[in-house]
Amino acid sequence: MSIKVRCFSLFLAVCGQAYALDHASHPMQQTAGSGGLKCPSRDFSKFIQAFSENKDVQIKFTKYPLKEQVLDLNAEPEPKPVMRTLRRDQISFPVMPGEADRKKWNLIFRIDEIKSNRAKVNVMSDDSDSFVVDYFFVLDSCWYLKRMEDSSFVIRDDL
Question: From edge to edge, which strands make up the β-sheet containing 62-72?
C-alpha cells in the first residue's frame, strides 16, 4: 500500500470528525449555512463541482441510508465485496475529496456516465489501483449520492 493512500485514508478519517445526526431518530442540528442549502444545479457537471467542494452540500444531497460497497481484504481465499447500509450518523464527511485534495494526493476525477436521471463518478489514484471509488447519483428534485463502491486495496478496521 502506498504512502499516498495511507495519508489520504488518514485525511478522510480526520475530516470525518463532523457527524450529522440521523434525522429519523433525532432533530438535525444545522451547521452554519447548511440548513438553507438549495440544489446547486440540475446540470450534473455543475452539481458535482459543488458537491465535491463542499461538505455541507455532500451531507444535504446524500440519500439515507447510503449504500456502500467495500472490499473485505481479509476474506479468504481472496478479497470479496461487502455491501453496507449506512445511516447518516455512520458516515464521515466529506465522502468525496475536493479538487485541492485530489491534486495533493494525485487522484483522477472522472465523470463516467450521465443519463437523464443517474450519473456515475470515478475517483482513483493515478499510479495504481490502491485507491478506487465509484460514486452513483440519482436525480430527484436534485442530484443525490445514492451509493458508493470502494474498490481500494486498503485494509479497513471497520469490517
Answer: 80-86, 62-72, 143-150, 132-139, 118-125, 107-114
